[in-house]
Amino acid sequence: MTTSYITQVLPRVLIVKRPAAMRVLGDSFVASTKFEIVKAFESPLPLPEFLADQSHPVSAIIAPVHVPVTADLIRLLPNLRLVVTTSTGVDHVDLVECRRRDISVANAGSSYSEDVADTAVGLLIDVFRRISAANRFVKQRLWPLKGDYPLGSKLGRKRIGIVGLGSIGSMVATRLEAFGCQISYSSRNRKPSVPYHYYTDVQEMAANSDALIICCELTDKTLHLINRDVFAALGKQGVIVNVARGAIVDEDELVRCLREGEIGGAGLDVFEDEPNVPKELFELDNVVLSPHCAYTSLEGLEQLGNVFGLEY
Amino acid sequence: MTTSYITQVLPRVLIVKRPAAMRVLGDSFVASTKFEIVKAFESPLPLPEFLADQSHPVSAIIAPVHVPVTADLIRLLPNLRLVVTTSTGVDHVDLVECRRRDISVANAGSSYSEDVADTAVGLLIDVFRRISAANRFVKQRLWPLKGDYPLGSKLGRKRIGIVGLGSIGSMVATRLEAFGCQISYSSRNRKPSVPYHYYTDVQEMAANSDALIICCELTDKTLHLINRDVFAALGKQGVIVNVARGAIVDEDELVRCLREGEIGGAGLDVFEDEPNVPKELFELDNVVLSPHCAYTSLEGLEQLGNVFGLEY
After folding, report:
1. What is the CATH number of the domain that holds B151?
2. Nearest Cα to A245, choosing from A265, A288, A215, A220?
3. Mean of pLDDT values over B177-187
4. Do A36 and A183 share a domain, yes or no?
5. What pLDDT sits at residue A309?
6. Quick check: is A75 catalytic?
7. What is the pLDDT of residues B206-236, one digit of tens each?
8. A256 and A158 in one domain?
9. Per-residue pLDDT reduced to its tens digit, A8-27
10. Residue A148 and residue B23: Cβ atoms within 8 Å?
């Protein structure tokens, strides 16, 4: 690093709210010698005043899921060239407005994929083998009183339909193959290099699957893609795992199907109105819930810094 | 099947207590045209009187884990030629007495291996990614109140030491390789065809592992094999998963290490004094407990019938 490099004006990167990663990794997460980090969250000013106050314009913004990059926000940033999400999904970014303004949008790449895939498999095993429910059974001291615990279901030879075979979906498939599961997938397009059975239609895949694992993006086309008809096709023993976005599933229908036994169980990391989870799910032993935490781990956050090119 | 076959005296197989499988599969589990099944559990008589009452002697016994085949029981069965356990482990059978009396002992083969391996991996993911604890967090409505859930740990690149690389241990290894884990193992002998690093000494393996998965038999040599020294070598972040037998682990030491943070967490399906579980474990979020139910599933029990050669 040369002195001249330090004295030049660095590209300015806006961070609106304190990132979750800072709570774990501290200030080092947003320390950089390549960019000037503009921390709006350290100012008491409302964002429009704060930005109006800046002498140099912001050229990039780091946008976690809980900071929607709306047309209103974009209007406050006339020199914005780049939006970088800290998530895999970009559904919280107004892509139409970005396209109109010729602003590039980059996501966190596949840095979360392993962790999400691991949790998806963990949730699937948990539901089939009833692990969280077993844990509760033992911790509530029911074993000496009630004796044998109800049997779970075998993972091997289960037909698993993966909705969206991107980076995460592919990693889920690799993992579940090692358990002897039969993998199929649905996606916008058939992937020629992939050995799994391809379905154009999710409902048809559901009819031929013991479980669906939702790994696709949330878009206009996938909003409530997993609906009443898909649940009916999946059937009474069928399991849903969702590690993508809550709104890909029609949550009201999901709750109804779970309560009425029209599907067999669910492992859900994401919900339509986070952090609010339908309370009807709290009493169901065949439902395992996690608070949108599949996406990363301590080690995963450290890797994320490399994607951003921030030094820490 | 010929008529003469039916009229001949069939070998008599004793079942002392109603098998768990009967509660699921009904009488069909013990229906057979090849053997005469002697159901001691249907008689009000104490076992010695019941057996003395039988006109034909018993030549085999089916022995679930909760029916110890002791020297006393064997003495009641002068014509016993064969003990068949419904478990993989045979530690509830007096092998010395069987050897002395030239009685063969057969176990359930590898019919449970897949289910046990699946649960071992499920418990490992659960502890590393904190799934059961996350489920409790959401179901106790803490997400809207407390916000971000503490991050778990990544599975990929974790160094996993498998204690006992038999049928179950090998299946655990195959599964965890698909998650990008680094596998090593300890066992009585090095297995020449296996690509994983071999340790003769469990403590040395623990010092080089992020988690140990106990998959070995319980014998005189493995009783309390996982002791204070092994926990110390494993270290503060280390995780123990036990799907074998409780007594392979020094449970008092395990409880102490978990309470005092000397190891990082545990996933336990088996305990020294089942169904009694140390109550100190009930409050620990980094401990996932299941009531010795890893071994099978609905589908697994059906396969078990084939191993026994019973028709149903």
Report:
1. 3.40.50.720
2. A215
3. 97
4. no
5. 52
6. no
7. 999 999 999 999 999 999 999 999 999 999 9
8. yes
9. 678 899 999 887 777 777 77
10. yes
Question: Which chain A residue is nearest to residue B274, measuring alpha carbons?
Answer: A144
Q: What is the DSSP-derived secondary structure letter of residue A92?
A: T
Handedness of CA A188, A194, A199, A205 (dihedral sign): negative
Contact B181, B158 (CB under 8 A): yes
User: How far does Cα A296 stand from its chain's mean position?
Assistant: 9
Residue among A292, A299, A302, A311 flagged as catalytic = A292
A 130-159 residues inside an 8 A Cβ radius of B? 130-132, 134-139, 141, 143-144, 147-149, 151-157
What digits encode the pLDDT tens for the residues B248-302? 999 999 999 999 999 999 999 999 999 999 999 999 999 999 999 998 888 887 7
Q: Check if the interface score ipTM surpasses 0.90.
A: no
Domain range spanning residue B62?
Answer: 3-111+298-308
Whether residues A178 and A209 share a domain: the answer is yes
- Same domain for B143 and B230, yes or no, is yes
What residues of A are in contact with residue B149 (Cβ under 8 Å)?
290-291, 293
| CB-closest option in A23, A137, A178 to B175 | A178
Q: Examine the domain organization and report whether B146 and B245 are in the same domain.
A: yes
Minimum CA–CA partner of B144 in chain A:
A275
Same domain for A197 and A85, yes or no, is no
Contact A299/B at CB under 8 A: yes
**10-residue block means of pLDDT along chain A (312 residues)?**
57 86 72 85 92 87 90 95 90 95 90 94 97 96 92 95 97 97 96 96 98 96 98 98 98 98 98 96 96 88 65 37
In chain B, residues with a C-beta closer than 8 Å to the C-beta of A119 are 125, 129, 131
Of A121, A279, A301, the CB nearest to B151: A301
Contact B135 A132 (CB under 8 A): yes
Residue B156 and residue B36 share a domain: no
Give how far Cα B219 sits from Cα of A111, B200, B246, B311, Å: 44, 17, 12, 33
Q: How many domains, chain B? A: 2
- With helix as H, strand as E and coil as C, how does B186-225 read? ECCCCCCCCCCEEECCHHHHHHCCCEEEECCCCCCCCCCC
Do A59 and A202 lie in a common domain? no
- Reference A104, options A143, A64, A135, A63; nearest CA is A63
